[in-house]
Write a structure and sequence with these properties.
single chain, alpha/beta, ten-stranded parallel sheet, 17 helices, 40% helix
Length: 547
């Protein structure tokens, strides 16, 4: 068929050699492995088979045809039916929803199958819904990027996360879960540590008696709050490494409730142990979390967003049904200001200043990824790709919340309603808080919880002992039983860069049965991980309180 056609005044298919035009467009496409080729509105499917033939040598590339118009989708289904049956690298969908399309991507090809995305226009059908097709392609590219970014984070920090979580298990029986804390309908001020924080802090009343709202802050804010005589109702601690220990210098003995992630640095818990509320950010799917949940030992979950500021907002939404106002979440910086006054980063710059070293951080200000952009107040601020990504994630997660407000200042616009500083103070001070719920006290040491934890820890120790004995030949090894045990102990290998928590990517039963190079390499690395974790579980057993 060589007939072209138009719709809504737009030529979708040329009447002059449409198949040849599409084939020439397919020939001009650069073909690479691990690439998802998006074909918006394939119509009769001209050029699709030519593109499929060109990528036939790349087993990890594929073509996804998207048709947003129902009538044209039926047309494409009819004319692509034979190609869909013949080519395993071809998919056709009418999905118009970004989240559903990303879910389809994971369902059809699994994690990290593609490294990049390329949009191919084989005809003019895309002109009917250009913005929609662009949005869908951007969402798929973002999904691919996030998937690889998460994998790299897991490879770098995954082992640290699980080591911290195991060490922090002993806190569970003597601490409250975050779900036991509630602020009712009280308004909440969520504080980040950006430069704009100084303005709002100077306007706040110092004492609880004069304050009619709650304060939830990130841990980096604590020194700035203490210097001004402000005591938060909850500080959020998320960092798994030692970088945030400077946030706690001089704060020992300060009576501040803390919400701490189960995978946070264990040392952080000792500073505010008297009022500790635990939560859990599932950085990846692990069987050990299921077992903890079944044992009733897993704290309440908080969506993993990668930023302590975003986590603080998420926690505030869980704690209150009232108004939430955020301040200091700038996602930007200036030549000489990166954090608010009295925060560790700001003090470090002041302490290091001398005749030869300026307070300006030239590496950050003049770096290749620095962006000069507009702030909420119309001025110019500096940002970078990482901060912009967090800002975009903030808008994606919280932009539709009518109870969430921002304060005007020098930070990036967050995609929510912005209030003037005075309007924000008025909104926060118009209500009252209930004194009885001001300082929730964690439950007392519970022998039953320690008993459950002891049983759980012993079970984990037994699993590792059996796995080690299988690998050393001290116990008979059956490939099926080995794979089952490997999956149960997936925290041992979830951080391996070539698997990064994806069970479907690890060697299968047949690999272990035949002893492939992939299986042997995997088992050697796995064996190295067992002994340190066995010692860690044994420490948990030794440190358990006697009955």
């Amino acid at each position: 068929m060589n007939e072209g056609f138009s719709r809504n005044g737009k030529t979708l298919l040329s009447g002059i050699d449409p198949a040849g035009r599409a084939n020439r467009a397919a020939d001009a496409v650069p073909v690479m492995d691990k690439t998802l080729y998006i074909c918006p509105s394939p119509l009769y499917g001209y050029g699709v088979e030519r593109l499929l033939a060109r990528i036939a040598g790349f087993s990890n590339s594929a073509v996804l045809c998207i048709e947003a118009d129902p009538e044209l989708f039926a047309l494409s289904q009819k004319h692509l039916r034979a190609a869909l049956e013949s080519y395993t690298q071809l998919r056709l969908t009418s999905c118009r929803d970004r989240k559903m399309l990303c879910s389809l991507l994971r369902q059809e090809w699994g994690p990290r199958f593609f490294r990049r995305l390329h949009v191919v226009h084989l005809n003019g059908g895309w002109q009917l819904f250009p913005a929609l097709y662009d949005t869908l392609a951007e969402s798929l590219q973002h999904e691919i990027t996030i998937d690889w970014g998460n994998a790299m984070t897991l490879a770098k920090l995954g082992r640290r996360y699980i080591l911290n979580a195991v060490r922090n298990l002993s806190l569970i029986p003597q601490s409250a879960s975050l779900e036991e804390l509630s602020f009712g309908n009280d308004p909440v001020l969520v504080l980040g540590a950006g430069p704009s924080l100084d303005t709002i802090l100077n306007a706040l009343p110092c004492t609880h008696e004069k304050r009619h709202f709650r304060i939830v802050c990130v841990d980096t804010c604590l020194p700035a709050l203490k210097e001004r005589g402000l005591s938060p109702d909850l500080a959020v601690v998320l960092e798994s490494q030692h970088w945030n220990l400077g946030d706690f210098i001089g704060l020992s003995g300060w009576d501040v409730p803390v919400a701490m992630d189960l995978s946070a640095l264990p040392r952080s818990a000792g500073i505010f142990a008297n009022k500790l509320f635990l939560f859990f950010t599932p950085w990846t799917e692990l069987r050990i979390f299921e077992r903890l949940g079944n044992a009733g030992m897993l704290p309440t979950a908080v969506l993993p967003l990668g930023s302590v500021g975003l986590s603080a907002v998420t926690i505030a939404r869980q704690l209150t049904r009232g108004t939430i106002i955020v301040a200091g979440l700038d996602f930007s910086f200036t030549m000489d200001s990166y954090h608010a006054r009295s925060t560790p980063g700001h003090l470090s710059k002041l302490y290091s200043k001398n005749r030869f070293k300026s307070i300006f951080n030239t590496d950050a200000v003049f770096g290749k990824t620095v962006l000069n952009t507009a702030s909420k107040d119309g001025g110019k601020v500096l940002s970078n790709l990482a901060l912009r990504n967090y800002r975009d994630l903030f808008e994606q997660e919280f932009g539709a919340d009518p109870q969430l407000f921002d304060i005007a200042g020098t930070g990036l616009p967050l995609g929510i309603t912005t209030l003037s500083p005075q309007a924000a103070i008025d909104a926060l001070t118009c209500g009252s808080i209930t004194p009885a719920s001001l300082n929730p006290i964690p439950p007392r040491l519970c022998e039953k919880k320690f008993e459950s934890l002891s049983i759980f820890v012993q079970g984990e120790q037994d699993r590792l002992t059996l796995l080690r004995n299988m690998l050393t030949g001290e116990a008979p090894m059956d490939a099926v039983a080995l794979v089952k045990l490997i999956d149960e102990c997936d925290y041992l290998w979830a951080h391996f860069p070539d698997y990064a928590g994806a069970a479907e990517l690890r060697p299968c039963v047949s690999d272990f049965e035949t002893g492939t190079a992939k299986a042997v390499s995997f088992l050697k690395r796995l064996r190295v991980e067992i002994d340190p974790f066995q010692k860690l579980w044994q420490c948990q057993i030794n440190n358990a309180p006697s009955s």
